[in-house]
Every structure is written in C-alpha cells, then in structure tokens.
Amino acid sequence: MTTILSIKDLRKSYADGFEALKGVSLDIEQGEILALLGPNGAGKTTLISTICGITTPTSGTVMVGGHDTLTDFRAARRMIGLVPQEIALEPFEKVWNTVRLSRGLFGLGRDDAKIEDILRKLSLWDKRKNAIKELSGGMKRRVLIAKALSHEPRVLFLDEPTAGVDVELRKDMWEIVAELKQAGVTIILTTHYIEEAEAIADRIGVIDKGELLLVQDKNTLMAQMGKKQLEVMLSEPIQTIPDSLAEHNLMLNGNGDALVYTYDTHADRTGITTLLNDVAQAGLVLRDVQTRQSSLEEIFVNLVSGEPA
Q: Are 285 and 238 in contact (CB under 8 A)?
C-alpha cells in the first residue's frame, strides 16, 4: 500500500519547557482508518494541529502525499480535511453557503453538484437552507464534516467527532466514515469512545504524555495483548474459594456462584484442563462454562497505566 502521511520524530515544546510531543514517528497508509486513543492531555489534539499546520513543530517533519507541511504548506494542507472538536460555525449563515465557502477557501472552483452530493450523503440536504443556529448539535457536527470534505481531501482528521452526540447519531457517523474509506479517503480519528475504535478502525494508536506508545493492527493488538477469562459457573454458590484451588489465582464473582480464571491464549498450556479437574476434586459441581475476551478498553487502560494486559 502507499504511504500518504509520514511523520518523523515530531516534537513540540513550549517556552515553559512543557513537551507536548516527544519524538512521534508514524506512517499511515492510503485508505486506512487509524484510531488514536489517549487520555485528556495525552497530545492527540496537538499532534493533529501540528500535522494540519495550525501549530508549528519544534522539530521533525510531516509529509502529506509527498508534500512537506512546512516548506510546501499549501499543497499539503489542500490534501487535508479537519473536523475539529469545537463547533465553531457562523450561527446566522445558511448550511449551503457555509459548506460552499469552505471549498472556495482552498482555491477550488464552484461545484454545486459536489456540494449537493456531500450534503445528501450527510443527510443535510433538507437542511441546506437552514441557518446554523436552527440545527441540533448532531447536525452541526455533520456540517463540520461537510465543510472538511468540501475541497475533496485525501486525508481526513476527525477530532472527537461524536463527542456529546447520542448513540444513534454516533452509529450514523460510523457509517459515514465507512463510506469515506470505500472512496479511498484516509481517516485519522481521535476518540474517547473505545467502542468507536473497536467498531471502525483498521489500526489503533495509543498516545500518552506526548509519546506514541504503540501503533498496531486492531485485531493483532487484541490477540497479542488481550487475555481470555474462563467463567466456571457453579450449581451452588460458595462463600470462599477452597484452599486446594489457590494455585490457580481464581476470583469469585459477586454472587459467589462463579469462579473466574484468567489465562493467556498464546501460552503453551492454558491450565484449563487441570483447573476443571481440581474444581471437581474440590467437590464443586459445574453448571456451565463460558469464556470472554479482554475488551479494547481494558487493553487501553492497562497500556496507559503501564500494567500488563
């Protein structure tokens, strides 16, 4: 695949000595969806702002489609669409004019058919004559996306695009992102909603304290770092775990009717067979057995906290 965005040793420091970015390096392929996860203050928005030319880096380089964002700013910026976190729109302007103006700002000629296509795909066509102030918060976010798409960018940044919107609208956004991916648009998404990354991303990046901790294929990440839990449900609840089962490091659920065993799927031996034999030897009667994979949220929390997954 073709690398469309290449970031090399990107750093951003401020006069007070604070380092917002600490040598971030990352290559993003054309047409992929990368979800960038991290707690508040991790550096997500600073990274996006620096790539988009809003913030000037202290050092390092960013290439977008072969164009340096500092020495060839106009060409690089023309390839980028940005949907910011904050909703900053002229409240009395019509939706149509707001989106059409954004296209003109990038030096592109008038193309009403393109604007209509964007508005229809974002379910904004019926609102085209409405003033921004008449729209709901979710519709305003759609307008932000329409503005970002108006100049036909090849790389789209979505900075917390579904913050504050309801679940139904959030899933609509996921469908929009999927359609953009099919059209070949590369998407970099920052989000606090772990299920968002899990649902739509190809790769997951985790950033904390200005450092990129890892970038990994989503499925590979979950397979490598996720662990499985075996829940052994008992026919009768118990008060404490028998001493004979201590070596298995079991946990008892809140109701006392299930033993929870955590194991590594990549280990040579999972220990499940021995565990089940020992449970029977302890005189406990099994009612059912089921497994559960660690969620991406659990993996993320463990990464940021520095604890093993």
A: no
